[in-house]
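Question (not urgent): is this output format expected?
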Amino acid sequence: MALSDYQNQYAAARAAMVERQLKPRGVSDQRVLEVMGGVPRHLFLDESLVSWAYDDGPQPIGHGQFISQPYIVASMTQALGLRPTDRVLEIGSGCGYQTAVLACLADRVMAVEIVPQLRDRSLEVLSRLGLENILLKLGDGRQGWPELAPFDAILVAAYSEALPRRLFSQLAPGGRMVIPLGPENGQRLVLVTKDPDGGQRRRVMEGCRFVPLVDPGQTDVNSPSFYLGGPGRR
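Got this back:
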């Protein structure tokens, strides 16, 4: 089955999510709204949570991790200003929902997840949806993916108190990164743009609450493994 085969499921709930949660808060990018209204968020959650899939809030996905509320997913995605030719790095892909949203908007998504069980589950769902422009790696997101850099955009779904220099170095000139920055109880989403000379410009967005970038010494990470789909969207 492919993405289109699931789009009739909970279609009314997704439409209500777009109209009541996203548009009133300033999500206006039509491509982002269309993708948010089409990607079946409920497939990425445990069956016991399906009835809350389109509610205005985060949901647990196990292993101390959460799927962000729909508005945060849409806001971060919109801030990146993705083009169909963009190559995107996602740090902390979790259950794969944000990955799917990015894959519908960009040429290719390179995603890094540190929890093996979440990586395995997301692979299964993304494969069911037929999204073939995703490369998924099990590893330490703080290192990024230097072998595949530079990236046109980077989305970090975990907070850091300071901008991770290693990730910023993997942005192409003119590239954009969205990341939660600040202390645990004072996080703000920040859009960081890389200037042609390697400098940076920042735009502070709304407050948020994410889990921290995980120290690989605190979890069991095996040798990285990869999933490669098709040739991209071009």
